Amino acid sequence: MKKALLTMTIVMFISFAAAAQDINIGAKAGLNLATLKPDLNDPAVRTSFHLGGVVEIPLLDELSLQPELFYSSQGVKDESDDDEEVRLNYLSIPVLAKYYVAEGLSIEAGPQIGFLLSAEVEDNGDTTDLKDTTKSTDFGFALGLGYKLENGLNFAARYYFGSDVNDIESDTDKFKNNVFQLSIGYFFN
Fold first, then answer.
1. What three-state secondary structure class fits 61?
2. 11 contacts 69 by C-beta, under 8 angstroms
3. Distance, first Cα to last Cα, the chain
4. CATH at residue 47
5. What are the two backbone dihedrals, phi and then psi, of residue 91, each rounded to the nearest 5 degrees?
6. Partner of 140 at 20 to 30 A CA spacing, among 105, 167, 178, 181?
7. Distances 185 to 7, 31, 72, 113, 134 between C-alpha atoms, Å
8. How many helices (H) and strands (E) does the chain have?
9. 70-79, 85-94, 147-156: segment of lowest average pLDDT
């Protein structure tokens, strides 16, 4: 939790320190379509959401740096058992390079770290805590497209490739977060 607070403080400091420049500060929310790879027994996409803040810092005419801070609900469902669902909830912090290929249209790519907030599996109405068997951080890479209108409204589609989150020493299986995200956001300035 100390790491998460430190990271949030750094992101906020960068935001305020750069406020005199032409930076955009905004909010975003959207849909998550999440799985864990390699596939668990018979996986299905878990539909959930993400919600948070965005800062876009112009570096060159076509290039910006975009740190974000958002809550992301991830996991997987078991296709053969509609009642079983793994829920992994993170405080996610991507830092993306954003390159504008045309007016308003950008390619986004960069590293992302997620701090585990909760982990549980629900099966037939019974919930089991998985936090002790799930790594507390998830490191990965995000890649996507964005489109920003002049009025501040923006849209994005992104895919996140995560690292192994299995923290059971006797289990050699690797389970990686894979999340497709569709977002809508608004820049306030």
1. coil
2. yes
3. 31
4. 2.40.160.20
5. -95, 110
6. 105
7. 22, 12, 15, 21, 30
8. 1, 10
9. 70-79
Instruction: Answer for the pair 36, 44: CB distance below 8 angstroms, yes or no.
Output: no
- Note down the domain range covering 110: 2-187
On whether the CB atoms of residues 56 and 19 are closer than 8 A, the answer is no
Question: How many residues make up the chain in this entry?
Answer: 189
Given pLDDT bands bounded at 50, 70 and 90, which one contains residue 171? confident
Angle (nearest 5°) at CA 173 between 32 and 80: 55
Q: For the chain, what is the domain count?
A: 1
Mean predicted lDDT score pLDDT of the chain:
88
- pTM recorded for the entire structure: 0.84
The mean pLDDT value for 53-62 works out to: 94
Section 151-167 average pLDDT: 94
Q: Check: CB of residue 49 under 8 Å from CB of residue 28.
A: no
Taking CA atoms, 1 is separated from 97, 155, 164, in Å, by: 26, 30, 20
Above 50 in pLDDT, residue 89? yes
Structure tokens at 64: 């910006």
Gap between the Cα atoms of 109 and 121, Å rounded: 31
pLDDT band at 43 (very low <50, low <70, confident <90, very high): low
